[in-house]
Amino acid sequence: MTQVRTRMAPSPTGEMHVGSMATLLKNYAFAKRNGGQFILRIEDTDKVREVEGGVKAIQEIVHRYGLDWDEGPGKGGEFGPYIQSERLEIYKKEVQTLIDNDKAYYCFCSKERLAEVKEQQMANKQAPHYDRHCRVIDASEAKKRVADGEEYVIRLKVPTDQEITFTDLLRGEITFHSNLIDDQVLLKSDGYPTYHLAVVIDDYLMKITHIMRGEEWISSTPKHVLLYQAFGWPVPVFAHIPVFLNPDGKGKMSKRKGMVSAASFLDRGYLSEAMLNFFMILGWARKNQEEVMTLEDYVKEFDPSDLSSNSVAFDIKKLDWLNGVYIRKLSPEQLKEKITPFISKNFPVEKIDQVLPLIQERLVTLADFDQLTKFFYGELNYETDLLLKKADSKELVIEELNEVIKLIETLSSWSLTDLEEGTRNLQEKKDWHRGQFFMMLRISTTGEKATPPLFETMMVLGKDLVITRLKEALNKLI
RNA sequence: GGCCCUAUCGUCUAGCGGUUAGGACAUCGGGUUCUCAUCCCGAUAACUGGAGUUCGAUUCUCCAUGGGGUCACCA
Q: What is the pTM of this model?
């Protein structure tokens, strides 16, 4: 049994998409499950679209998700370098063997001519494709034109009238007809390889056994198969993973419909563990049907052939639920550490240890912290009418407030039991409507209709602040 | 539009010829409770359609329809 080796090969052209991270997870898990290696390779062959710091950002986001690679940038490995722009000589050498074996040819067509051809084809309602204008150029003539310094690209000489079949782990055999395949550019005029050339060469040289990538690559896979054949290399196992659809189930998940970068979810208060768990259960279910699972569980069970071959909607509601599950699992120390970046500058830090337990089960994302705690500091701003809710009269509320203030001022100690017992006794003795009374207190001390339990909240606020706010409420009424 | 992939509740799925078609999220009820949340209980809700194959099709085959992907010197 040969060693399982998987890889993820992102390009540094922008922030990594959640779909890419989900695919990366699958590659990671499958390699780990089989005791193999997971390789990270940077596909930076598009110098036009590359963004500054992109290579570094890729490594960072993988680490932020709690994952790592066995070989790749920053790690090394015996099949390096793992950054394609550092492998240009390899591609040039390999593509030359293709030329020598008549599997590829030089093309001198200008971009203008290509555009014209395309326009013509569109006008005739034909599918746009390269018209193979340069395919017939004699090899020696081509060599001469290259030597003369004429600009060129190298194209794949796609065979005619041939069926190209490959096996996809999720779907079985997939067949394309070669006549429908374009003579793909392999080497660009700037000397860089295209994705198609580089991916085949690198996957072979890096001994990748299983190629798990997005479904959007299915239609270019026959080109890759042709290349493997042209090189005389064995074809690896393919597993094309379904794409994420927008939460509404319409169309491939895209920037147009919201934030899609893997980093943005973390920045919005989703836990990496919840994100990973979410990726796990989108399009796959473990044997016992349980949905909350650890990376370890997943690695033990994940098999790409069990993946659903249908594209799946990115259901934010389910993610929210999972995130809540993971937040509730956090120890006080873990929660404090993870939520720190989301704490407002105005929040009184000395109260954090008291506040966190009160809001933990109420957090959907870590970013909810502000909304849930803003009444612990700063001015309250609520409609006076709220104080009167369900009350028979304004006078009653005024009486209630006066009595509670008196009670709190004479409390022997500021303790939860004293405060709660005293207040409850007062309510019972006076026979005030319970719901009305407690809601009125909640509004006057927090300005909110929904808060953590009232007495715990008042304890955290402190005696002075509670009295101040009760008096402010009173003032609003008189 | 051509080519390729695909089709079970609103969503993610289990099912791999015979099931009261199961679970999770969401939704809606109810309970616990000072509100919200948590937690517990319950309910609504699905095999896209049509031909075959078969004693029998959600399950196998074909067609239609729907959905998705892809058609660059981008990955």
A: 0.95
Q: What is d(CA A277, CA A408) in angstroms, rounded to the nearest whole number? A: 48
Judged by phi (left if over 0) then psi (alpha if -120 to 50, else beta), residue A89 lies in alpha
Is residue A94 domain-shared with residue A196, that is, in the same domain? yes
**In the complex, which nucleotide's C1' lies nearest to the CA atom of residue A45?**
B75
Domain boundary among A338, A372, A406: A372
Task: Give how many domains chain A has, as a whole number.
Answer: 3
Positions of chain B reached by protein Cβ under 7 A: 1-8, 10-14, 22-26, 34-39, 67-75
| Distance of C1' in B46 from CA in A260, Å | 30
| Residue A356, CA distances (Å) to A79, A270, A460 in order | 48, 17, 11
Tell me the catalytic residues of A: 255
Residue A342: domain span: 262-372
Whether residues A118 and A203 fall in one domain: yes
| pLDDT string in tens for chain A (478-residue length) | 579 999 999 999 999 999 999 999 999 999 999 999 999 999 999 999 999 999 999 999 999 999 999 999 999 999 989 999 999 999 999 999 999 999 999 999 999 999 999 988 988 888 889 999 999 999 999 999 999 999 999 999 999 999 999 999 999 999 999 999 999 999 999 999 999 999 999 999 999 999 999 999 999 999 999 999 999 999 999 999 999 999 988 888 887 666 899 999 999 999 999 999 999 999 999 999 999 999 999 999 999 999 999 999 999 999 999 999 999 999 999 999 999 999 999 999 999 999 999 999 999 999 999 999 999 998 999 999 999 988 888 999 999 999 999 999 999 899 999 999 999 999 999 999 999 999 999 999 999 999 999 999 999 999 999 999 999 999 999 8
Is residue A1, in this structure, part of any structural domain at all?
no
In this prediction, does ipTM exceed 0.95?
yes
Q: Which nucleotide is nearest to A325 (CA to C1')?
A: B38
Angstrom distance, A93 CA to B49 C1': 55
User: For residue A41, what are the contacts with CB-CB under 8 A and spacing of at least 6?
Assistant: A7, A8, A9, A72, A82, A83, A84, A202, A206
The nt closest to A113 (CA vs C1′) is B73
